[in-house]
Structure formats: structure tokens, C-alpha cells
Specification:
- With 105 residues, the chain is an all-alpha fold.
- The chain has two helices and no strands.
- α1 packs antiparallel against α2.
- The two termini are 12 Å apart.
């Protein structure tokens, strides 16, 4: 009847840190202020503009992903706190000083 649902907090934190470190390690190595010094050939300048726009979108994606990881971390912490609170409530009910004893089945 009773199924145990649990979360390995250490593993959860490890995976969240891995996600955060992985996304933060993505680096384009190209500045969004790059320009061509010796050419104004339209296809090349358009490609550079598209590359710069892509890099800016990547930075936005990294920021949003970090916010999602923060939310995930918060949810994990919340689950842990709720589990601890539930465990304390159960322990108090079982060891009620008023003499309550759980029924045996």
C-alpha cells in the first residue's frame, strides 16, 4: 500500500550544479562588437551580423536556462523541506505523549 517516494538530495544537487556549470561553460569566443576591417562585401557583412545576433540569442538563452536551473534548485529544496516537515509530523503522531498508539494490522 505504501510506496516510498524519495529524492537523493546529494545527487540532485550534483546534477543541478552540473547543468549550471555546463551552460555557463558555453562560450562563443567572439565579441558582439566584431567588424570587418578590409571588406564590405554584403554576404560577408550579413553573415557577421547574423553571427552577432546568434551570439546575443545564445547569451539570452544562457540567462534563461540559469533562471530555470535556479527554479529547479528551489523546487528540490522545497521538496526536501516538505519531506522533513512530514517526517517530523509523522514522528510526533506516533510518539504522541497523550498515549496514542498506532493500530497494528
Amino acid at each position: 500500500m505504501g510506496t516510498k517516494i524519495s529524492i537523493d538530495v546529494a545527487l540532485f544537487k550534483e546534477r543541478v550544479d552540473f547543468l549550471r556549470n555546463t551552460i555557463n561553460s558555453v562560450d562563443s569566443k567572439i565579441s558582439t562588437g566584431e567588424t570587418f576591417e578590409f571588406t564590405n562585401v554584403k554576404p560577408l557583412t550579413e553573415d557577421l551580423e547574423n553571427l552577432i545576433e546568434t551570439i546575443e540569442m545564445l547569451e539570452t538563452y544562457k540567462m534563461l536556462f540559469n533562471e530555470d536551473v535556479d527554479t529547479l534548485e528551489h523546487v528540490g529544496e522545497s521538496l526536501q523541506k516538505q519531506d522533513e516537515t512530514s517526517a517530523q509530523s509523522s514522528a510526533q503522531a506516533i510518539h504522541d505523549p497523550r498515549g496514542y498508539t498506532p493500530l497494528s494490522t
